[in-house]
Amino acid sequence: MKRLYVIFFLFSFLSSCFAQSLNIIPEPVAATATNGKFILQDGSNIFITSNNAELKRIVGMLQTSIHERTGINLKLRRGTPGYGIIIDLNKKSSIKPDGYELTINKNEVRLTGKNCNGIFYGIQTLKEILSKDDKVFFPGCRVADYPRYPYRGFMLDASRHFQSVHFIKRVLDVMALLKLNTFHWHLVDDEGWRIESKKYPKLNLVGSYLDSLNARERNGYYKANEIREVIQYAKKLYIKIIPEIEMPGHSRAVMESYPELLCPTDSGGKTYCAGNESDYKFIKIELAEVINIFKPEIIHVGGDERPKGVWEKCPECKAMVSKLGLANEDMLQNYFMKDICNYISSKGVKTLAWAENIKDGVPKNQIVEGWHPGESWEAARNGYYTVNADNIYVYFDYPYNSEEKKNRPDWMPVLNLEKVYSFNPTPDSLKESEKKFVIGSECALWTELVLENDVQHRIFPRILAFSEVVWSPEKNKNYENFLTRVNAIRPYLNSKGFEYENGEW
Ligand SMILES: [Zn+2]
Fold this sequence. Notes:
The protein is of the alpha/beta class. The protein has two domains: 14-145, 2-Layer Sandwich (Chitobiase, domain 2); 151-495, Glycosidases (TIM Barrel). The protein contains 18 helices and 18 strands. The strands form three sheets. Strands 1, 2, 3, 4, 5, 6, 7 and 8 form an eight-stranded mixed sheet that branches. The protein has an eight-stranded parallel sheet with strand order 13-10-9-18-17-16-15-14. The protein has a two-stranded antiparallel sheet with strand order 11-12. The longest helix has 18 residues, at 53-70. The chain is elongated. Bound molecules: zinc ion. Zinc ion binds next to helix 9.
């Protein structure tokens, strides 16, 4: 018996020596490359263990992907699994809800998940490890995997520069491949209102066309049917969309369209008047329209960087402070945001906002997005669920290196690939009881200086590092190993039409 163990040990050792290396991003919770490979050929079978329509759909996506890349047609079968790819939807398994297990040897590929989300993520792993020498194959491995955080986001600013629906879909494709699940769509800012509005047509006639040069990427808006198309597309990739409607600041596009919403003392300004009941009414009618188009689970209501000195000068805002018995204009913002958020909540939609006024309390059920260092920790300590988007780790408009920094505003720090990779949204300094409030993170691309075609260079390869921040266990992270995988996945991302930034990351 002892001899058998020795032989088994030697065999395992040799297997691991000759095993193919796996190049999976984000790095799974546990993954071991094993010897052997499963060779794919025309007519190879995919067995599904359930007639679940959604399971069939996502397995169909795998068939399509393999066919597009290799020309190989796989046959979908229901029934007793034999030699082939087995997709096992097993609701009774002990796998975590969005997790999956994958075992590959020369006879079978077995992917098991407790729900379709898990199977979907397992399929993304299969897409990444699909390999080719003289044959097309999946390398032998054992993988057990599940996400670190439920909120794994990417924010794209469509206000400063506008991106096409076609481009957004390609971004969503890559988010899905990297197991990101939340697309925060920044659709309203000073430079443009980007959502079709039937209630307030000047938001489009004026607010969507503010750029006098009439550059295509700086003007326009998404039609309601285009937005619905994007939402449906995202849903099929297990991505939810959070539209952001900025207020009370960052609203020049609204104010150019309807200047009567400004404080009477703020001609040409960019901030709602919190002393004017018409402003509250306007926002609520428009939000109802946005909710009708998006049917979102969450709306982001902005809330950051209200210019100081505007409300302080306005007689209507001052009268409102006095009428409500508030201490100052900061507390007026607190009142304003609570009123709007309560309205959104009354429609069954949750709210998310940039962290401001935490010390004064935020509306019940609001998720706090921290973008300055420490804001999310403060939110967690105060018992608010929070998304930690600390700008110094996740703002992808920041330069990659000191050379690039020369062409950027002084206040922008360098954000290289290793710095993104080092980010830990839930630091050890938080107590165990506080850590549960950090629900995840998102990387963000502000586009003041970024045209559609440059988005790829801002996000790649940094978004790869970010995917490990939100998916992989902190203890698994290894930057050198990550760099190897960044290079390995590059041809696949190139084939999806994306290029990495040139030069030093
Ligand atoms: Zn005012």
